[in-house]
Amino acid sequence: MISRIYQGAEGFELFQGVSLVLFFLVFLGVIVMIFTMRKAYIDKMSNMPLDLEDEKSTNHGGHS
Asked: Residue 64 above 60 pLDDT?
């Protein structure tokens, strides 16, 4: 397909196939990771920005 757009692209079919396979493997890996995460971990990560704000407001003598 890309050889129709760019005439100097002959011989890159292997790289195109490998990149497509890698993309789908990463995509499927992320989906599997999302569905296998524990609820406690998701809650902890979603509250992190709020926890940092609480620490800044109570830490009067520390660095920000």
From this structure: no
Q: For residues 2 and 9, is the Cβ–Cβ distance under 8 A?
A: yes
pLDDT at residue 54, as a whole number: 66
Question: How many angstroms separate the CA atoms of 26 and 61, rounded?
Answer: 44
Separation between Cα atoms, residue 43 and residue 20, nearest integer Å = 33
Q: Which of 18, 21, 16 is nearest to 5 (CA)?
A: 16
User: pTM for this structure?
Assistant: 0.53
DSSP structure class, residue 64: -
* Residue 16 one-letter amino acid: Q
**Residue 48 C-alpha from the chain's centroid:** 18
For residues 24 and 34, give the distance between their C-alpha atoms in angstroms, rounded to a whole number: 15
